[in-house]
Automatic annotation (TrEMBL):
The keyword Transmembrane applies. Keywords: Membrane, Transmembrane, Transmembrane helix. This is Uncharacterized protein. It comes from Paenibacillus phytohabitans. The chain crosses the membrane at residues 7-28, 34-52, 64-90.
Length: 102
């Protein structure tokens, strides 16, 4: 995976992990009128495009796109952000150990 792919993988993980914080992430989303969910959607969409070009794993970012839409539902969104962060963490760790798929 290229440095840009790694940056987007780890960056989207950090953003999802922040949004998964029980009260802080929810307060951040509500205080900014759900705009952070749109930002997350765009970050995940760009990451998917970059990772498709590099033939990297896109599962975590695809789940992140779904999470950005479902995140409008308060407690379901919180659980989905936590699941997405966990998937992105596993992909980030395993992606740094292996080469791109061909």
């Amino acid at each position: 995976m290229s440095p840009i792919g790694k940056l987007f993988k780890w960056g989207t993980f950090a953003y999802e992990a922040f949004l998964a914080l029980p009260f802080i992430g929810g307060a951040f989303v509500v205080a900014n009128a759900w705009v952070p969910l749109g930002v997350a959607f765009l970050l995940h969409a760009v990451a998917v495009i970059i990772l498709l070009r590099e033939r990297g794993s896109i599962i975590g970012n695809a789940v992140g796109i779904v999470t950005s839409v479902v995140g409008l539902i308060p407690f379901v969104g919180w659980i989905m952000h936590a699941i997405t962060a966990l998937i992105l963490l596993v992909e980030g760790i395993s992606g740094s150990r292996r080469n791109t798929r061909y």
